């Protein structure tokens, strides 16, 4: 079944398909009570939404995981069969949908997924669960899922002091550890950076943000070729509203973060960062820019050369940023934006040089994006 893009778009993911670049995105539609998938090929003029889900799956967490076995995996917080969510997969054509695992079944872990998925060693998939009864997910666990036999194991049950409120998509770093963040862990509940060995035997809190003006780290980290791990905080006590994004980096051998760039009051980056082959970092913000509707930005690895590549609202387009960008192999950044004042939003792309901003397919979502 296909629908127009008058539907709720929530996530964006790009991957190479048959030597051609194809953008895959996920939708949520409250009327259909189910999700869908849209694709945009290199020659596509207008994306089409296909309902590929075999059953209702709600509140998808994180972005799709492109697994080394050739399938894409996702996880949702609520699913069919009265489950507390499910891990699901489909092939790179957006077909052959499978429900891989139901939470809250025979394992009786009593939790719901609150973070995205990552692939670790030997093809294992890792994710995070939060206690359902506690809205803030102050405690929970980290799990490992084997896609070959569809078995799930709880590796570590974290405390509120370690990782309260985490919705992290874990980062499998080159040193073999899994890294993550929490917005409310540590003392005094202002966020932590943590890591865990992939067998779950070792778990460490590397840093607590209660000792710095910056706090509440976002749930995405990115590893740079220089060996540092990059992320951003969503708040800074040096600003009156405390809503101010700050870019930071840390070394696994020296876990105290160095604050590289402050975005200013009420300017918070959206999602995670992407890194190009030259080591430049890219992202988007939900406010800021020339028109205070968000921007696509670029910076070097030290945060010394920050550039606003595109301010939403330029060229007479009433747009506002809605997602972090994805960097494709054609040196274009792709993301989602919404229209304001009656205008249409949609999928956008912009070259990493800051040129050639283009609204690929205009649409007006029926309700706001997640």
What report would you give on this structure?
With 370 residues, the protein is mainly β. It has one helix and 32 strands. It has a five-stranded antiparallel β-sheet with strand order 1-5-4-3-2, with no helix packed on it. Strand 12 and strand 13 form a beta hairpin. The N terminus and C terminus are likely disordered.
Helix/strand layout:
Layout: E1 2-3, E2 8-17, E3 20-29, E4 34-40, E5 48-50, E6 58-66, E7 72-78, E8 86-90, E9 98-102, E10 111-113, E11 118-119, E12 125-131, E13 140-146, E14 151-158, H1 160-163, E15 171-172, E16 177-182, E17 192-197, E18 203-208, E19 214-217, E20 222-223, E21 229-236, E22 243-251, E23 254-265, E24 274-275, E25 281-285, E26 295-299, E27 307-311, E28 319-321, E29 326-327, E30 332-339, E31 345-351, E32 358-363
Antiparallel strand pairs: 1-5, 2-3, 3-4, 4-5, 6-7, 7-8, 8-9, 10-12, 11-12, 12-13, 13-14, 15-16, 16-17, 17-18, 19-21, 20-21, 21-22, 22-23, 24-25, 25-26, 26-27, 28-30, 29-30, 30-31, 31-32
What are the main properties of this structure?
49% strand; disordered C terminus; mainly beta; disordered N terminus
In a few lines, what is going on in this structure?
The chain is built from 1 helix and 32 strands. It is an all-beta fold and 370 residues long.
Largest sheet: 5 strands, antiparallel
How would you state the average pLDDT, rounded?
80
Q: What structural class do the secondary elements suggest? A: mainly beta
Counting DSSP E segments of at least 2 residues, the number of strands comes to 32
């Amino acid at each position: 079944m296909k629908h127009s893009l008058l539907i709720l778009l929530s996530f964006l993911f790009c991957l190479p398909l048959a030597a051609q670049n194809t953008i895959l995105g996920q939708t949520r539609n409250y009327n259909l009570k189910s999700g869908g998938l849209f694709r945009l090929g290199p020659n596509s003029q207008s994306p089409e939404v296909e309902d590929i889900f075999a059953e209702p799956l709600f509140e998808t967490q994180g972005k799709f995981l492109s697994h080394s076995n050739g399938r894409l995996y996702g996880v949702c917080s609520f699913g069919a069969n009265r489950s507390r969510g499910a891990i699901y997969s489909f092939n790179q054509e957006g077909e052959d949908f499978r429900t891989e695992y139901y939470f809250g079944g025979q394992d009786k872990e009593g939790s719901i997924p609150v973070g995205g998925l990552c692939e670790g060693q030997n093809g294992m998939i890792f994710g995070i669960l939060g206690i359902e009864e506690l809205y803030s997910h102050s405690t929970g666990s980290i799990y490992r899922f084997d896609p070959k036999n569809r078995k799930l194991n709880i590796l570590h049950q974290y405390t509120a002091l370690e990782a309260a409120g985490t919705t992290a998509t874990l980062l499998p770093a080159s040193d073999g550890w899994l890294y993550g963040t929490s917005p409310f862990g540590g003392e005094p509940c202002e966020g932590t950076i943590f890591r865990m060995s992939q067998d779950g035997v070792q778990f460490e809190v590397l840093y607590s943000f209660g000792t710095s003006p910056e706090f509440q780290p976002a749930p995405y980290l990115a590893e740079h070729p220089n060996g540092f791990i990059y992320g951003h905080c969503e708040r800074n006590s040096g600003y009156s509203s405390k809503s101010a994004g700050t870019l930071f980096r840390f070394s696994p051998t020296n876990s105290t973060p160095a604050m590289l760039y402050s975005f200013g009051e009420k300017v918070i980056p959206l999602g995670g960062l992407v890194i190009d082959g030259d080591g430049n970092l890219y992202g988007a913000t939900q406010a800021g820019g020339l028109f205070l509707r968000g921007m696509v930005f670029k910076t070097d690895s030290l945060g010394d050369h920050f550039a606003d590549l595109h301010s939403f609202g330029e060229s007479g387009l009433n747009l506002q940023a809605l997602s972090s960008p994805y960097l494709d192999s054609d040196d274009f950044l792709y993301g989602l934006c919404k229209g304001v004042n009656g205008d249409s939003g949609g999928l956008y792309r912009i070259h990493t040089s800051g040129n050639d901003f283009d609204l690929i397919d205009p649409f007006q979502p029926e309700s706001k994006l997640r």
